[in-house]
Amino acid sequence: MRRGHKGLGTQGIRMHNNALLRVDGLSKELGGQHILKDVSLELGKGDLKVLIGPSGGGKSTLLQCINLLIFPDSGSIILGGREISFRRKKDVLAFRQQIGMIFQDFNLFDHLTALGNVQIALRKVKKLSTSEARKRAERELERVGLLSMAHLYPAELSGGQKQRVSIARALAMDPLLLLLDEPTSALDPELIGEVLAVIRDLGRQNITMLMATHQMGFARTLAKEILFMEQGRIVEQGIPSELLEAQRLSGRSRTLDFCSKISEIYGEDLA
Amino acid sequence: MDAAFILNKVLPSLNEGLLVTLLLIIPSASLGLLLGTLVGLLRSFAPFWIAKLAAGYATMFRGTPLLVQLFILYFGLPNIGIYLQPYSAAVLGFTLCSGAYHSEYIRGALLSIKRGQILAAQSLGFSTAKTMLHIIVPQALRRALPGCGNELIYLIKYSSLAYIITCIELTGEGKILASRTFRFTEVFLLVGAYYLVLVSLATIGLQKLEKRLYVPGFGRG
After folding, report:
1. Are B66 and B93 in contact (CB under 8 A)?
2. Inter-chain contact B117–A89, Cβ cutoff 8 Å?
3. Cα separation, A201 vs A207, whole angstroms
């Protein structure tokens, strides 16, 4: 367990050199406020890492910066060994294609059916033919168990189904990794399970994921590492069991306190 | 009513005028919608000064009478060496005017589209232009359709102003015939009926279009 991560010291760059994604010293200021302060992290292929922490702690901004939906003020993003240049628009567009993004409120395209949502980027961005795109889109919908609903519009789907379509939409682009921004936070409690089941399956299929979530039970059992974010920094990080156990023993613990509070709200048992 | 007069004199000239009216409406309506969509997008998404410029255009053309605009285009522009045919001046005037109104409907529709739609498109690698073309505009047009349809119906009726700058369309033909024969009542009742039919057809067409483009979650629940 490392604690009090401080910038670009040797610690930040250490670990495996063959990391799929390496984020170094990312900072972002918005309206005079430091939203992100010198955030670094690494994801190896097939890793599932979980971002937790209070709202406003910078989790969403971090995810959107990694996908360049928000341009960081400083820092670097290295994907598959190549540093991403933020300046050339073409590079940025190509880069975004390689990273799938799942949003808290789904953001399905409201004017397209489930199939249309999965197809459109294949057609217009990847330039696949209509039949190829359709085949691929159907395969992805099948993967999330929604092929039978391909013809329905977002307004006709439940929240959980919408989120599963959005996962299919992201996966259809063959991304190198998925960023999930609280994918279950906008769902009714009884719908959370189906989305988590899909994410669990993706984990089994070795899909690399970085996920912001409040689902502590999920994080504990499946995450390779928990990153605790507060006030724009990753303040604590580690393997879930070790992180929580060490804090239980030392008695000084932001992560554990936070997790207990969250678990209480969601009625999960953290023991 | 004099049936022979109507059949032999009125209907043939009104039909000729109808053709010109259609030739005025069809390009003006399509170009106007295109212009309005473009201006609406600029007003909503372009950098500050370009958005201001686009808004200035809309203010100018919504804030002055169409007739004055037509006079400037037809009688005013020759002073700076630009000579327009009556027909071109009319189409240009109608396009600019209806574009200004469309831009307002489109802008309103764009305001109602959530930012998440743009984020989602960007995250899939859509460029700004492709995001607009494939994601934003199809949604905005659906939302703006009732307003834009209304503008089309106005256009059908204000196309009658073209005859004042000597582009003789339906109203113009009627006016000429009526002045020559002094049978104002019959002629203008018929001219009115022609417009009524045109507007009714447009209304039916718009309803069909609305039904065709219907997507659950847009408008009618």
Report:
1. yes
2. no
3. 9
Q: How far is B20 from chain A (nearest CA, A)?
A: 37
Contact across the interface for B135 and A109, Cβ inside 8 Å: yes
pTM, rounded to two decimals? 0.83
The enclosing domain of A166 has a CATH number of 3.40.50.300
Report CB contact under 8 Å: A111, B120. Answer: no
- A5-28 pLDDT, tens digit per residue, is 443 333 444 444 578 999 999 999
Nearest to B123 among A96, A108, A109 (CB): A96
Task: Classify residue B220: in a domain, yes or no.
Answer: no
How much is the ipTM here?
Answer: 0.85
In the predicted structure, residue B26 carries a pLDDT above the cut 70: yes
Strand residue runs (E) in A32-143: 33-43, 48-52, 74-79, 82-83, 99-102
User: A236 is in which domain, residue-wise?
Assistant: 2-266
Tally the domains of chain A: 1
Q: What share of chain A in percent tops pLDDT 70? A: 88
Tell me if A121 is assigned to some domain.
yes
Assigned token pair, A108: 């399905």
Q: What order of strands is seen across the sheet that includes strand A225-230?
A: A2-3, A233-238, A225-230, A48-52, A208-212, A177-181, A99-102
Instruction: Give the SS3 label for residue A72.
Output: coil
Contact flag A124-B216 (C-beta cutoff 8 Å): no
Please state the rounded mean pLDDT for residues B184-209.
95
Residue B219 lies in a domain: no
Determine whether the interchain pair B125/A170 forms a contact, defined as Cβ–Cβ distance below 8 Å. no
Nearest to A111 among B116, B119, B138 (CB): B138
Task: Give A-chain residues touching B122 at CB under 8 angstroms.
Answer: 69, 96
Tens of pLDDT, residue by residue over A232-257, are: 999 888 888 887 777 666 666 677 77
